[in-house]
From TrEMBL:
One of its GO terms (molecular function) is heme binding. Residues 1-22 form the signal peptide. The keyword Phosphoprotein does not apply. Keywords: Heme, Iron, Metal-binding, Signal. InterPro entries: Cyt_c-like_dom, Cyt_c-like_dom_sf. It comes from Malonomonas rubra DSM 5091. Pfam families: Cytochrome_CBB3 (PF13442). This is Cytochrome C oxidase, cbb3-type, subunit III. It comes from the Bacteria.
């Protein structure tokens, strides 16, 4: 009886922790690939968009940026919803205040 209760509590904790992680359904590995392929062209030092890496924002700022979906120009018009979810997840996972900050050079 006691054991069941403990299991239930552990399940609840695990669930709460997972759902605290940004958007659901984003694939960070795909996001990294898409970011390098589609964003880096404009977002390296000296390019038209200026340098952007996961470290450019905090986790909350990345989520807000994608939520607002107001990237300048029409650079994002070619991305599907899933692509943006994936990129959002990648940037979030490696944001400046994340567990694994990463520049993605
Ligand atoms: C066609 C070129 C181009 C592409 C592709 C592009 N951007 Fe941008 N991006 C820009 C320009 C231009 C700006 C505006 C820079 C400025 O105002 O100094 C910008 C601004 C930004 C900013 C800063 C906005 C802010 O207020 O913080 C972020 C973050 C950003 N882009 C992320 C991305 C991401 C992520 C991708 C890929 C999904 C991407 N961009 C693809 C050209 C591009």
């Amino acid at each position: 009886m006691m054991m069941k209760k403990i299991m239930l509590i552990m399940l609840l904790v695990a669930f709460t922790v997972t759902s605290a992680l940004a958007v659901d359904g984003g694939n960070p590995r795909k996001g990294k690939y898409l970011f390098k392929k589609n964003c880096k062209s404009c977002h390296t030092e000296g390019a038209e968009g200026g340098a952007v890496t996961p470290l450019s924002k905090t986790m909350a700022q990345w989520d807000k940026f994608f939520e607002d979906n107001k990237h300048p120009g029409d650079a994002w018009s070619n991305f599907g919803e899933q692509d943006l979810l994936d990129i959002n997840q990648f940037l979030f996972d490696h944001a400046v205040d994340s567990d694994q900050p990463e520049t993605c050079g």
